[in-house]
């Protein structure tokens, strides 16, 4: 869970240090690459979570996998290792990117559609998000064919479901209640 209190504390500390050194964007890029690497490699995730694997072995693996990250990111990983909190690495990275987006006044709008968004629709979504929240946003498109058509828009805590599957489900509930 990216909202764990310890992960948020570590992320805030890393962000504060990165701000002092004017390196918050570089660290944000590192954190995104960490999240992507952990998401794509179940072996890496299992190794990070495993209490059997020694910290020195974990550090060696992370040093080779993330050899091109900034010194702030390396220091954050070393701190997690020394505090025996390396299992939180993914959560810390997720929390950092969320805090960084809040700091910049931007957010991620997740749009789930049955087919890929066109550039024109992406622009309309961005305009609507700006109108609703007053903040800039990046659009992340998730393709889920099970929604049949329409879209599901999620920005922060707000979710708007205009999918065909949702409308069919509402109709089904309406008919079963009568």
UniProtKB/TrEMBL annotation:
Gene Ontology molecular functions: proton-transporting ATP synthase activity, rotational mechanism
Keywords for the protein's UniProt record, in alphabetical order: ATP synthesis, Cell membrane, CF(1), Hydrogen ion transport, Ion transport, Membrane, Transport
Membrane protein topology class: Peripheral membrane protein
Major subcellular site: membrane
UniProt-annotated location(s): Cell membrane; Membrane
The keyword Ion transport is annotated on this UniProt entry: yes
An annotated GO cellular component: proton-transporting ATP synthase complex
Keyword Mitochondrion attributed: no
Family the UniProt entry places it in: Belongs to the ATPase delta chain family.
Task of the protein: This protein is part of the stalk that links CF(0) to CF(1). It either transmits conformational changes from CF(0) to CF(1) or is implicated in proton conduction.
HAMAP family, per the entry: ATP_synth_delta_bact (MF_01416)
NCBIfam families, per the entry: ATP_synt_delta
Protein name (database record): ATP synthase subunit delta
Phylogenetic classification of the source organism: Bacteria, Pseudomonadati, Bacteroidota, Flavobacteriia, Flavobacteriales
């Amino acid at each position: 869970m990216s909202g764990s209190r310890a992960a948020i504390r570590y992320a805030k500390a890393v962000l504060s240090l990165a701000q002092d050194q004017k390196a918050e964007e570089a660290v944000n890029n590192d954190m995104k690459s960490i999240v992507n690497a952990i998401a794509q490699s179940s072996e890496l995730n299992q190794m990070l979570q495993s209490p059997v694997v020694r910290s020195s072995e974990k550090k060696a693996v992370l040093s080779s996998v993330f050899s091109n990250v900034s010194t702030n990111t390396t220091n954050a990983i070393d701190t997690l290792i020394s505090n025996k909190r390396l299992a939180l690495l993914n959560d810390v990275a997720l929390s950092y990117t969320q805090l960084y987006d809040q700091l910049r006044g931007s957010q991620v709008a997740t749009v789930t559609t049955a087919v890929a968004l066109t550039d024109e629709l992406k622009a309309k979504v961005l305009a609507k998000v700006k109108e609703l929240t007053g903040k800039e946003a990046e659009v992340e498109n998730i393709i889920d064919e099970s929604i049949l058509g329409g879209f599901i828009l999620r920005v922060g805590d707000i979710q708007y479901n205009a999918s065909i599957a949702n409308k069919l489900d509402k109709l089904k509930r309406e008919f079963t209640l009568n």
